[in-house]
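Please, structure for the following, as tokens.
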Amino acid sequence: MPDTAVARLPPAVGWPASGTPLASRLAKLDLHRLDDLILHLPLRYEDETRLTPIAVARPGFPAQVEGEVLSCEVTLRPRRQLVARIADASGALVARWLNFYPSQQKQMATGRRVRLFGEVRGGFLGLEMVHPRVRPVEEAESLPDALTPVYPTTAGLGQAALRKLVERALNLVPLEEGLPANTLAELGLPGFAEAVRALHRPAPDADPAALENRDHPAWQRIKFEELLVQQLSLRRAYNARRAHVAVALAARRQLTQALLEGLPFGLTAAQARAQREIARDLAASHPMQRLLQGDVGSGKTIVAALAMLQAAENGWQAAMMAPTEILAEQHYRKLAGWLTPLGVEVAWLSGSRRKREREVVLARLQSGECLLAVGTHALIEDPVAMPRLALAVVDEQHRFGVRQRLALRDKGADGRRPHMLMMSATPIPRTLAMTHYADLDVSVLDELPPGRTPIRTRLVSDARRDEVIGRVREACLEGRQAYWVCPLIEESEALQLQTAVETYETLCAALPELRVGLIHGRLKTDEKAATMAAFAAGELQVLVATTVIEVGVDVPNASLMVIEHAERFGLAQLHQLRGRVGRGTAESVCILIFAQPLSETGRARLKVIYEHTDGFEIAREDLRIRGPGEFVGARQSGVPLLRYASLETDGDLIEPARALAERLLREDPAAVDRLMARWLGSREGLLRA
């Protein structure tokens, strides 16, 4: 983009008119106002403060050279290109452009003095630069007195134009200090204005490594403020939720106590603790917003059942929503088995139920005769009315989008918000919970119920597939059952993976003495239900499946899990799938079949799942490999990703940021408003979902 685009900015406002090409390019970078440019910080820096004599320029490193153009011509072999030869007192180099404009050819006219910046490399004719940046100069023209920032940009918006925009913003926007002086002193941080200027206009003597690695004091200041603003946003959202009214559900303990007395097992200490925390929240007149997280098999369902009963014993309704029909139906069967003997009806609602059955269920829910419901996203569809809904439970909450979670929340009774209990079997590392989940109360199930057998994990190359089939035969002939999980349903030319259908046919042929079943997402609901029921009843010995069995499936007799092309799965999925076995008393094994060659990421994931069984440790490693945005599904959850702070390297800043956020919210709301306006503008609403 020509630099003249910047000159078209209205001088009074300093921002391009809406709808102009410049405004749309800036919008692609999420830049909508001058304040956004202040925090649009460089990716890296180039050192144009010094000149390198051509003779001492090192191949493989960027350098700035200055010299006279000896020649410039368009050559046609081996392809059409612009080739210029530039010399200074120490030597000469070749500059080459494979794509060029006539204006560049004029710029490199013979006899002109130019400065070139680019990476030097060894060429056929000696040192050369390919596509260097060029600037015509006069003899003895002064050099810049600061490192040159290189900004994130988009097509049509050049670095020179972006630098001018940032310069204008720095001159027009008041760089107000937003943090208390004692906090800056305690943490050894510079002021905001000093930090911003140091990053946009670093001094020539600034440590380039500290700037590149983002551990320069100016970067520390920016990252601390970003973490602070995230804490402020989430805590303000948390406080706003507490200002809403919910139905107070007293812990009457009639039904909950009856359920506990009728169970064939006792609660673990962690389950009892979580149940007390939830019961206390439900008794309050503002909506609960709690995350119940625990490893695979830690017993979240019974804790959720006790919470739902607390609503029922007060005469109010509760609903549990799960992301897949298999998981929702499993929850329904479990809850119905526990609660029907207590005289409590549980409704089952899914998109696949027959129209007449569905209408009966809807009528009972609408009349309030039925107090508890379990279902898929069908629960949030318009015809479903639960006029006395006081508690909504969302299992595997990260699989639902913002709108789906809000739709369930908005079904509360008489304009009152229902209490919300989110459940996740993907343990969340502490640093992530403190940042991305600061608007929730968190209950953790950090122990497994007694009787769960440890699962041994084995890594096997796909060249040894026949040995694995033999292992399946042995386990099943000893009276056990096995899962065989595949990543795809049918053959894909792009991904030549073993598929569920093909594997099913292979196992049927290789294991004629065993009964093999197949389940995947494209089967009709009643077919899936029948296959799962047959496997649970022991009528099928091997179940070939896609990841539809990832969560919730509970068959204690299944002691062997085989995962095909394990390198294609994420760590959370592998851990979830492995947790489908080890639910009985028999020793359980999970075999991960992988294909060679392994990518670096694939190798790292398999190493983690092989070495660890603790879901929290696996989650920490997963966070390290994937990064926070992908780990929590931030784009779906509505929580903005951190742009500059890293949970891996800046964990020591989170606790002070959280403490200061609480203090500012309590003592200086005006400072909070200023900080939020600087960083979020109108985007704070994202955090309220």
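The chain is about 40% helix and 20% strand. Residues 174-243+654-689 form one domain.
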